[in-house]
Amino acid sequence: MSYFYLALAIAAEVAGTSLLKATEEFTKLVPSTFLVIFYLISFWLMTLALRDLPLGVVYAVWSGLGIVLVGIIGAVIYKEIPDLASLIGMGLIISGVVVMHLFSKTIQN
After folding, report:
1. 14, 26, 78, 85: most buried, per Cβ within 10 A?
2. pLDDT the model gives residue 21
3. Sites in the chain below the pLDDT cut of 70
4. What single string gives the DSSP state of each residue in the chain?
């Protein structure tokens, strides 16, 4: 169940971060309000994931996958196409998450 909470936390964080541009520097009330709500939900769900998973693992997966997903959303919605260096960096982030899950003893309970 902890991974389910973590997945929902990532989705909420990505939704909130994706609204940053729409807030127009927090001058637009509706997207700003939803951004705060999504972040609050994300952090609450992270605390639920922390019942069974280590803090470092939860934060690494949450932030790493969030970076990649926000990069994809930025490319699709805002037409901010990442260059080769950005793609390589995102690939390394995904590789790091995979290595943690395959080889880290801190993840196994």
Report:
1. 14
2. 93
3. 107-109
4. -HHHHHHHHHHHHHHHHHTTGGGTTTT-HHHHHHHHHHHHHHHHHHHHHTTTS-HHHHHHHHHHHHHHHHHHHHHHHS-----HHHHHHHHHHHHHHHHHHHH-TTT--
The pLDDT tens digits for 47-69 are 999 999 999 889 989 999 999 99
Amino acid at 88: I
Distance, in Å, from the CA atom of 41 to the CA atom of 9, rounded to the nearest integer, reads: 7
pLDDT the model gives residue 108: 57
In whole angstroms, give the CA distance from residue 16 to residue 7: 14
Distance CA 45, CA 9 (A): 5
